[in-house]
Design brief:
Elements lengths: L7 H15 L8 E6 L5 E4 L2 E4 L4 E9 L2 E8 L10 H11 L3 E5 L3 E6 L8 E5 L6 H12 L6 H4 L14 H16 L5 E6 L5 H14 L6 E5 L2 H9 L9 E3 L11 E5 H4 L18 E4 L12 H8 L4 E6 L10 H5 L4 E3 L1 H7 L5 E8 H5 L29 E3 H17 L5 E5 L3 H14 L1 H6 L4 E3 L5 H5 L1 H5 L8 E4 L12 E6 L6 H9 L13 E5 L37 E5 L6 E5 L20 E3 L6 E9 L5 E2 L3 H12 L3 H10 L3 H10 L4 H8 L5 H10 L6 H11 L7 H17 L21 H7 L3 H15 L4
Parallel strand pairs: 5-6, 9-14, 9-15, 10-12, 10-13, 11-12, 13-14, 16-22, 17-25, 18-20, 18-21, 19-20, 21-22
Antiparallel strand pairs: 1-4, 2-3, 4-5, 6-7, 7-8, 16-26, 23-24, 26-27
Helix pairs in contact: 5-6, 13-14, 19-23, 24-25
């Protein structure tokens, strides 16, 4: 058989694999074929979703199962030897693989990224493929891995034959960290930045396991600041440490273990009864700080005191959101990240859920509210005469009608999608969360009557709510459905099936915003969670436009040891403290600067909220924003965005009509436009569900009057073009038109359509086709029917 007749897979089987084996590569442990290393981005169209294509390498070669060192891209023999090199280099860049090969079965083009002088690409015969040791020695030289640390770097991952294997970005994070720690080059602090939902704890587990099993690190402390984080960790991947692991509780210290999990407040308190001092300063040689943006970034924190005590250990910080403000810097302590895997990368790869935004603007938020002269609050006191706005509501001034309207809009959204979608409502403070629980209960009386846990307040001070936190985040538990919170659920809550995040809090901190968005980014395919919605009442999602929203953090801390930072702005209006006994977060309002009324009289007494009712509140703007194919939020109107997207492909109505008429399958055009960002389901919601994609395009992109499917079907029936056919054929055509009017079928020319109800009630497929005089006549009749249906008058 000629080489040119072989498929790409044939080339792999007959030529590439045999030469790899001949070069010494183990078939079972050192190379994999057709390796999909992403899941494929999820595209959302209205309430529908679809997966994009995976990125897939033809071969990845491993020195050890945890160390990928080479990639081969294969093309069939109708291509040149070099044809796959650019695709291979792009994949290798993502996977951090230094050796790339392209082949068509005749030879290899070898691209060696470790070369610093001389040719970087050379062509080699198939029988000259490098052996594993040849590439490993080059790899070690390139990475600066000496023989003394090579056994540590090549230490295997944990595997029990059942556990998952690391994703590509986890593998990079683990390998970079193990290499950095093994080098012992004087840098004992390291930072990993990985978006929420990308498996930071699993990554930490594999780092600990490899450093521990290699013998480099013998006693390890995993440090967190919330009970939920410790509980999730020990029940998750850390369970494989078994008897080598313990949790430090009630300040009881036992030095017989290797792996220790602890809350920092369980090791230290404000009475100087510091349990960590029961250990010698040299006891731990590795400390992992989970969610390190929270406490350890601040110089005067208790976290920092613990880390300073064990300063001889290697410190590794994990976070999705490194804190970089004028006062606080994660990178100043831990250094620049060893590796960053961002939210945008996670969504592009299909490992994280994309989102759409529903922005609701209330009139009193946008325009402000000024009480009429002598207006009294619910306690009968005159309300200070000044203009109140979005920042004041629920912090200083409670407007009953505003809360009720927010609850109605949340309920309205859930009724239009799924009333049992797990929902987190982020509020200004604990009192606001309590009040919103009441309003949401009143807005959902029917479901609350069935189960009072349908809506629950889950805050640091509410024991009943905190007890239900595990049930809320469990995919298999139906209740609670809606959780109102302030700060407790902003971080460390693994809510895999959360489909709706409601923002009704004035969030000014980018760190807090990223953490909140992270509550929705997890995908759970078993429970149908592929995307989520953000419902924004406070214009918080304007932060999406901030260049700091995604990507590498920028260090902006400017204050030195003796600089006065008393005038620096705080990240947020409130700070949180953690209860030393429970490890749960409790909110303590900071002293506030008094607001001055228009008469110059100080505003309400500090800490006291004024509650009013009888205020008319209405919605002045409501629109949906989507994440576009480029990862950016589409801020223009849906119609404008659709018009631009369609016209980029079809510059005029005539060009669109020609393509539509010539297309054998209309659905192919619709799918092509969807790939360019046209969202037909969303257009149906806005313009009307009775319109065909054809009319939506003509109307939105070219300003044509749309016709409903029923109107189009009725026009065809009135034209009597099909009277020449017999009774059965006419009944089939009428049934097809009725089905089009009801269901909006695009592919009338698909032969399988006659097997669908109710057409199949008219006869068998051969009987129906025979009624038109045979298959060619049937196909001609359906083709004409389609043409008449989409005829533009």
């Amino acid at each position: 058989m000629k080489m040119s007749a072989l498929s790409e897979r044939d080339i792999c089987t007959k030529f590439i694999t045999p030469h790899l084996i001949a070069a010494g590569w183990d078939l079972h442990t050192q190379f994999r074929e057709e390796v999909g290393f992403t899941d494929g981005r999820i595209y959302v169209r209205g309430k529908l979703h679809a997966r994009g294509a995976q990125k897939r390498a033809d071969y990845i070669l491993y020195f050890k199962p945890n160390i990928p060192i080479a990639l081969i891209e294969v093309k069939d023999n109708n291509h040149s030897v070099n044809a796959g090199i650019q695709q291979g280099l792009a994949y290798a860049e993502t996977l951090e693989i230094p050796f790339v090969f392209s082949t068509n079965g005749d030879a290899f083009l070898f691209h060696d990224k470790t070369i610093t002088s001389g040719p970087i690409e050379t062509q080699i015969p198939l029988n000259a493929f490098p052996s594993p040791n040849q590439l490993w020695n080059r790899y070690k030289l390139f990475k600066g891995i000496g023989d003394d640390i090579a056994p540590i770097v090549s230490q295997d991952y944990f595997s029990d034959g059942l556990a998952r294997s690391p994703r590509y970005y986890q593998q990079i994070a683990i390998n970079r960290t193990v290499e950095a720690v093994a080098r012992k080059d004087g840098d004992s602090r390291h930072l990993l930045v990985m978006a929420t939902g990308t498996g930071k704890t699993y990554t930490a587990f594999q780092i600990i396991y490899r450093l521990w099993k290699s013998g480099l690190k013998k006693r390890i402390l995993f440090l967190a600041d919330r009970t939920a984080l410790i509980d999730q960790t020990i029940r998750g991947d850390f369970r494989h440490f078994k008897d080598a692991m313990t949790i430090i509780k009630h300040k009881q210290i036992d030095t017989a273990y290797n792996i220790y999990l602890a809350l920092y407040q369980g090791l230290s308190d404000n009475n100087n009864d510091d349990a960590y001092k029961q250990f010698s300063p040299e006891f731990f040689d590795l400390i992992i700080v989970d969610e390190c943006h929270r406490g350890s970034a601040r110089e005067d924190s208790k976290w920092r005191a613990i880390l300073e005590y064990f300063k001889g250990a290697t410190h590794i910080g994990l976070t999705a959101t490194p804190t970089e403000t004028k006062e606080v810097s994660s990178t100043e302590y831990f250094g620049d990240p060893l590796y960053t895997y961002s939210l945008k990368q996670g969504i592009d790869d299909g490992f994280l859920a994309p989102y759409k935004v529903v922005k609701v603007t209330l009139d009193i938020d946008a325009e402000g509210w000024r009480p009429p002269k002598g207006f009294k609050d619910k306690n009968g006191n005159v309300v200070d005469d000044r203009i109140y706005n979005r920042v004041d509501f629920d912090k200083h001034l409670v407007v009953d009608e505003r809360r009720a309207l927010v609850a109605r809009k949340i309920t309205e959204f859930l009724k239009g999608s799924d009333r049992f979608s797990k929902t987190i409502v982020f509020c200004v403070d604990i009192e606001h969360a309590e009040g919103m629980r009441k309003e949401l209960a009143n807005a959902n009386t029917d479901l609350v009557a069935v189960n009072s846990k349908y809506v629950m307040q889950i805050t640091g001070d509410n024991e009943e709510g905190k007890r239900e936190l595990d049930a809320f985040i469990s995919p298999s538990e139906r209740y609670p459905v809606i959780a109102t919170t302030s700060k407790l659920m902003t971080t460390g809550v693994d809510a895999q099936t959360c489909r709706l995040i409601v923002l009704d809090s004035n969030i000014g901190s980018m760190t807090e915003f990223k953490q909140i968005i992270g509550r929705g980014t997890r995908i759970n395919e078993d429970f149908g969670k592929f995307y989520f919605t953000i419902m924004d009442f406070r214009n918080v999602t304007a932060l999406f436009a901030d260049k700091a929203f995604d990507g590498d953090p920028v260090r902006i801390k400017e204050a030195g040891e003796h600089d006065d930072i008393s005038g620096a702005e705080n990240e947020a209006d409130d700070v949180t403290e953690v209860d030393a006994n429970t490890g749960e977060e409790v909110l303590f309002p900071q002293p506030e600067k008094p607001n001055i009324s228009i008469e110059g009289i100080p505003d309400q007494v500090q800490g006291r909220k004024v509650t009013v009712n009888g205020v008319e509140v209405s919605i002045i703007k409501e629109h949906v924003q989507y994440m576009g194919a480029d990862g950016k939020i589409i801020t223009e109107s849906l119609r404008d965005y659709t018009r631009k997207s369609v016209r980029r492909t079809y510059a005029s109505l005539d060009s669109f009509l020609r393509s539509w008429k010539q297309a054998d399958k209309k659905r192919a055009i619709v799918q092509e436009l969807e790939q360019h960002g046209v969202m037909f389901a969303a257009l149906n919601e806005e313009i009307g569900s009775a319109f065909d994609p054809f009319d939506l395009i003509c109307h939105v992109a070219y300003e044509q009057k749309p016709l409903t499917r029923k109107e189009r079907a009725d026009r065809v029936k009135k034209r009597n073009y099909f009277t020449k056919y017999g009774e059965l054929a006419r009944k089939v055509i009428d049934a097809l038109l009725d089905k089009y009017a009801d269901d909006g079928l695009l592919d009338l020319e698909n032969p399988a359509i006659i097997t669908l109800d109710p057409i199949n009630r008219l006869g068998t497929a051969p009987e129906i086709i025979g009624a038109f005089g045979g298959k060619p006549s049937y196909e001609a009749a359906i083709h004409r029917l389609t043409g008449e249906l989409y005829r533009v008058v």
